[in-house]
Amino acid sequence: MAKGVALAGVVCALLAVAGCGGESGVSAGASVAAYVEAPLCAGAKQALGRRGGKAGDVRVRAVCLASAETVERVDLATIGANARRATQDSASVAYIEAPTRPSFSRPIVESASIAVIRAGSGAAAMDRLLKAISESGTSGSLRESVREALS
Question: Which residues pair with 95 in a beta bridge?
Answer without folding.
Answer: 35, 116
